[in-house]
Amino acid sequence: MAGSAWRSMLSQVVAQSTRRTRLSSASLSRGIQTVTLIPGDGIGPEISTAVMKIFEAAKAPISWEERNVTAIKGPGGRWMIPPDAKESMDRSKIGLKGPLKTPIAAGHPSMNLLLRKTFDLYANVRPCISIEGYKTPYTDVNLVTIRENTEGEYSGIEHVIVEGVVQSIKLITEDASRRIAEYAFEYARNNQRTSVTAVHKANIMRMSDGLFLRKCREVAEGYKDIKFTEMYLDTVCLNMVQDPTQFDVLVMPNLYGDILSDLCAGLIGGLGVTPSGNIGANGVAIFESVHGTAPDIAGLDLANPTALLLSAVMMLRHMGHHDYGNKIQAACFDTIRDKKVLTGDLGGNSKCSEFTAEICHRVQDLD
């Protein structure tokens, strides 16, 4: 049941944003579409290589344009991503990103936050659905978290009031709240989901979360076919670990989404098996693995590429390549279900390269 839920849900995971995708006429004429690949740091290059090998085995019509992303200071001392990375994304509109580290230094921005702001990636979409054959305490999870990605506590507005006292501003706007609510309801409708839950703390933050909740209520009025509920964040967390099957689509401000989406990932086995997509304005989208860089195992051929691979499957479907996405996903899930060739975090003792090779063989057998 869990496997079929994955196949059904991910086949339409970003259907409503697909129609906004615009590709160059040169790419279309060749039948090959260019994707900006950001391998990332730590284990990022290894799992990116694994994905490319699996795509090659599947004969997916993708051309990779690799770019490294590190924050640099532009005119006026403003942080920015390297121009060649931005130009590549502006051309391709589609990106696949491995984990990025953020140097712990005064004033250095989060690399993920910088990418979101650069390309206005306002919606983080993270499906959390039980994987058949991968045992966890929960066996029938099937929900999606949709997180507002551009403001809230992650607006980066902080300052010292007096020595020993720091203030961080939580920015909530009407436009961003309405936009993410509309995305959540459109997502639910286009993916045959039946309910949307707005997650908030408007009982405490009456103005900021109150504004977010009002916009959700207003948008819900236009979607009478979708059940709308609202729930406090702490209540959601309590109910989630007791019975996650009561939830369908959840929409929430930035910080709550960061926390709750990781909690939901834990229900299905962790960030190592959880895909993620960031949907932006003007047809831009970046798909990513949301786990860390794991520097302790980098270069040791021990990393698990599943999260980045499933994110790449989301990307393929976003681009309209559903057959290739289905084939790669089936090969990945069959490998996990068979339990013979698995990386350490999946319960096996195989190397990343061996796990990758097994998926490649299964992909070719499906031809």
SSE order and pairing:
Layout: H1 2-10, H2 15-18, H3 25-30, E1 33-38, H4 44-58, E2 62-66, E3 72-73, E4 79-80, H5 83-92, E5 94-97, H6 111-118, E6 123-129, E7 142-148, E8 158-162, E9 165-168, H7 174-190, E10 195-200, H8 208-220, E11 227-232, H9 233-242, E12 249-252, H10 254-268, E13 275-279, E14 285-289, H11 306-318, H12 322-338, H13 352-365
Parallel strand pairs: 1-2, 1-5, 5-14, 7-12, 10-11, 10-12
Antiparallel strand pairs: 3-4, 6-7, 6-13, 8-9, 13-14
Helix pairs in contact: 4-11, 4-13, 7-8, 9-10, 11-12, 12-13
Quick overview:
It contains 13 helices and 14 strands. The chain is an alpha/beta fold.
- Put simply, the count of helices is 13
Order of helices and strands: HHHEHEEEHEHEEEEHEHEHEHEEHHH
Low-confidence stretches: 9-30
| Overall strand count | 14
The portion of residues forming beta strands comes to 15-25%
Determine the fraction of residues in helical runs and give it as a percent range. 40-55%
Shape: globular
Largest sheet: 10 strands, mixed
Class based on secondary structure composition and strand pairing: alpha/beta
Q: If you compute it from the alpha carbons, what radius of gyration comes out, rounded to the nearest whole angstrom?
A: 20 Å
Ends distance: 25 Å
Sequence of strands across the biggest β-sheet: 2-1-5-14-13-6-7-12-10-11
Mean pLDDT: 90
